[in-house]
Amino acid sequence: MRWSIIRLIWVRELKDQARDRRTLFMIAVLPLLLYPVLGFAVLRFVLGLADRPTTIGVEVAAGTGKNFPPPSTGEYAPFLRDGKLTDPTCAALAEKLKVSFQFLSPADSQAALDEKRIDLLLSASPHFFADLEKAEEKVLDKPASIKVQSQQSADRFRQARMRLDVLLDLWKRGLKATRMQRHHLPTNFDETFAMEEAVPARTAGGTTESLLDLMIRVFPFMLVMWSLAGALYPAVDLCAGEKERGTMETLLISPAGREEIVLGKFLTIWVFSGGTALLNLVSMGVTTWLFSAQMPQAALSLGSLLWCVALLLPLSAFFSAICLAVGAYARSSKEGQYYLMPLFLITMPLMFLTLAPGVELNPFYSLVPVTGAALLMQKLMTSSSLAQVPWLYFVPVLAPIVLYSYLALRWAIDQFQREEVLFREAERIDVGLWIKHLFREKEETPATGQAFFMFGLLMALHWLSLSFGGALSIVTHTAVRELAFVATPPLLMTMLLNTKPLLGLRLKWPTLREIGLAALLAVLLLPPLVFASVEIIKQYPKLLGDRQPLVQELLILSEGRALGDGTILPFLLVFALLPAICEELAFRGFLLTGLQKHFRPRTAVLLCSFMFALYHMNVFQFLPSFFLGVVLGLLTLRSRSLVPAILLHLVYHGALIGGMHIYSDMRESMSPIVKDLWLPFIAICLLSAMVLLWRLYRAPYDALNRALAGDRARPPVSKVDRAKLGE
Q1: What domain range includes position 546?
Q2: Of 427, 458, 473, which marks where a domain is finished?
Q3: In a domain? residue 368
């Protein structure tokens, strides 16, 4: 690829987009105007709501004057006497809250309430104070009561009731103090104990910190959504719009390669997506600063805004790559909008999840592309120093974004290399005909699209399995999940959609040489893998045990406790044998076979291993699972059978379960000489295994080179043919 060509296309597309006034208005002008206008409107509404007075109607009988409740000869003071509040503190607070009282007769009170001349209506029994004294002497079983009525809307009623409750609470405290004095008791006699709450420094600010928490949650939500909107409009115009205008042909016949064209367009969309998000960030920051004098003092630091910028750039690249890939398939701008709008439907739930109470950054959410980035952004905005920055989560949050962006770009390049996509005519979609075609013209083995669909289905089923079976034991729950949610989908799909299901799942018996190779790899890899797994589990027991039943059982073993009823055989069957069979059928069987149809062998192995590690939904298990997936994938390619991978997977999990407590005890009783030789022994095993894995990694390409050397006159081999020959 030539950077000069990419830059030329990039600059050309930027100039074309800058001439489009609609795009500039939606991406640049609207964000700068939206937040100041919304901020002014919201502030006016809040201040107007706070300044709105509250009128409370008081129902009084004829002859009682402006007294409420009706007066008595006792020692209790009424709430209102001669139309004024009896408690001076309560009167001052009522004036501050803009609460006024209107006295009404029983005949006029209901009409005033229905006509909404008053917000609330207070009424009490003529014998209120008599009932109060009877309840004090235990003559009555229930205390005296005051009735509150309203016909206003929910918001207006809530505001009026909140103000009234404050005033009534002060009056009630005075009545309680009077009662205590009558019985010669201290005023705090009914307080049995006091609660002393240690409020964290960050939440001690009350309203200020509540507003800051709201801003921290809302800012990432708005930035992510505008980043997606900023990528959508340019993607539609640069791909589908050029097809409509007829300018795509001019670009395709130029000396630029298809990859260079895609990268130039991608950089253009990235600039607009990132620029839109940054303009929104600037607009929100300026709006917050302008209205901070009229609101509780809560502001985001400059470091928080810089962290938002740092995470917005890769997230904008992610949205730009996806929009470009989808927009390249569209035939017109209208069709492109139809294809790209569902991205909002997918992104919205992922973002609303970050607004839910109790949802915080953890190993599970960090692997979800949009959710993990927004939660990490929230965490970074609350970090007051570098020591509080969750550096460990950057890799699991950014790695999926980078991978998905790369895959989307490769898909876009593939779209631009297919003439039937760039110049396709309008087509009718007949779902029934498509389903008939799918079942009538079956392929021998799974296709790449079926492999990606299978991975999405496995992730959805895994997520679903976390929310059911809470009453089941860990053994039963794991067995049901492995059999029903891991093994069943690939078996059903390959039997329904493929003509050779055994070949698609690589279910054939390998040679003794391949079995011996798997055994040798197991011997060499088990010491370093078990050592690394044990040390990681002991360092992060809580994070690793979250949603991971196998790790939970390993932690039990490490503490020297017995498993269940004390027998280890059921755990070996459920946590070693079932995952080895079910997960290998799904990943090294169905997924790897489908990926190999479109990708090179090593690319298919790496991609399948990434999916395998992502499936376990745990940050701290990601690298060990990825490395194990690479080993199992290379072994499957080398043997063209699933059996060696199943055996190695079985031995690995079995060694973890059977050797956890043995290793823990062995470290305590190990002699100094053995301790000194233990780490060099692990290093030798790991080095030998890496040499063997390199040979496995090169094996498909060595076979390909030998095949090509035998026929020099053969025409160039395509990528797909290379992958097939590599098998």
Answers
A1: 428-727
A2: 427
A3: no
Which residue, 658, 475, 650, is CA-closest to 579? 650
Residues 6+ apart with CB under 8 A from 458: 485, 486, 489, 586, 615
Token pair of 611 as six digits: 């999916």
Structure tokens at 470: 């809470």
Rounded to whole angstroms, how far apart are CA atoms 315 and 317?
5
- 438 and 304 both lie in a single domain: no
User: Which residue is listed with tokens 């920051």?
Assistant: 285
379 within some domain: no
Please tell me the total number of residues recorded for the chain in this structure.
727
Report how many domains make up the chain: 3
Give the separation between CA 292 and CA 303, rounded to whole angstroms: 18
Query: Looking at the structure, do residues 127 and 276 belong to the same domain, yes or no?
Result: no
CB of 146 closer than 8 Å to CB of 169: no
303 and 423: one domain? yes
Q: Grade residue 713 by pLDDT with cuts at 50, 70 and 90.
A: very low
Neighbours of 704 (CB within 10 A): 17
Q: Are residues 537 and 616 in the same domain?
A: yes
**In degrees rounded to 5, what are phi and psi of residue 68?**
-145, 130
**Is the Cβ–Cβ distance between 288 and 381 less than 8 Å?**
no
Place of tokens 């090593």: 602
pLDDT at 723: 44
- Output the pLDDT for position 370: 84
Digit-coded pLDDT (tens) for 97-154 = 888 888 888 888 888 888 888 888 888 888 888 877 777 776 666 777 888 887 756 5
The CATH number that applies at residue 172 is: 3.40.190
- What share of residues in the chain are helix, strand, coil (percent, to 5)? 70, 5, 25
**Tens of pLDDT along 16-58?**
877 777 667 766 677 667 666 766 665 566 556 566 788 888 8
In a shared domain, residues 484 and 564: yes
Report which DSSP code applies to 441: S
pLDDT at 540 over 60: no
* Inter-residue contact 584 to 649 (CB < 8 Å): yes
> CB-based contacts of 256: which residues, under 8 Å, 6+ apart?
5, 8, 9, 264
466 domain residue, yes or no: yes
